[in-house]
Design a protein that fits this description.
single chain; alpha/beta; Rossmann fold; seven-stranded mixed β-sheet; globular
Length: 204
């Protein structure tokens, strides 16, 4: 999957994802963690307000491509870890910003991963997210998502089609600064329903 991921997503990146990433990530600041970094597509969008950047990617093949992309970028103060989103070997309240783009669909336990994000955020820190989700407002499409999900999980690296990520973010204790619900351009209809925005941890 690592070998073909960027090529598979190329059209969506050109039509919408690249713009969404740029608009969202210009707001990150301070010490930043990205979970499920993959091949490092977000790297080009991190602003100068990023002090320390930690990139987490458990898949070895993805991580090799990520390392090459980091080296080519010339960025300093970048750390790469193999930890998964469910448990990262990092101290509590280590980050001002955490980034998740098209990741929370494929984690082993979304609830645990979001609790881990909340643990790692400093008070007032924020999660910046772009995620495809269940088509809750389209019963016909949701029916197809449920039907295809077992096959999709098997062939697409544990990617789930029916995640209610919006509700899970709230259940983890985060509050939305902004959230936009829209349709991703180019991929199959079952992957198009998308949410993106910023969710914040309460100040102490």
């Amino acid at each position: 999957m690592a070998k073909f991921y960027d090529a598979t997503m190329k059209t969506s990146e050109e039509l919408c994802l690249g713009r969404w990433r740029a608009e969202l990530l210009k707001h990150v600041r301070g010490d930043v963690l990205e979970i499920g970094t993959g091949t490092g597509v977000n790297l080009q969008y991190y602003p100068d307000t990023t002090h320390r950047l930690v990139l987490s990617e458990p898949d070895e093949n993805m991580r090799q491509q990520l390392k090459r992309r980091v080296q080519a970028s010339g960025r300093t103060s970048v750390e790469i870890t193999s930890d998964g989103a469910g448990r990262l070997d990092l101290p509590d309240e280590s980050f001002d910003s955490i980034v998740s783009t098209l990741v929370l669909c494929s984690v082993n336990d979304q609830t645990s991963s979001l609790r881990e994000i909340c643990r790692l955020l400093r008070p007032g820190g924020a999660l910046f997210f772009v995620e495809h989700v269940a088509a809750k407002n389209n019963p016909r499409l949701l029916k197809w998502q449920r039907f295809l999900e077992p096959f999709w999980i098997f062939f697409c690296g544990n990617c789930h089609l029916t995640m209610d990520t919006e509700s899970e973010i709230v259940a983890a204790g985060l509050t939305f600064d902004q959230i936009e619900k829209t349709s991703m351009l180019s991929p199959p209809p079952v992957v198009r329903p998308t949410i993106r925005g910023i969710a914040r941890k309460a100040c102490a």
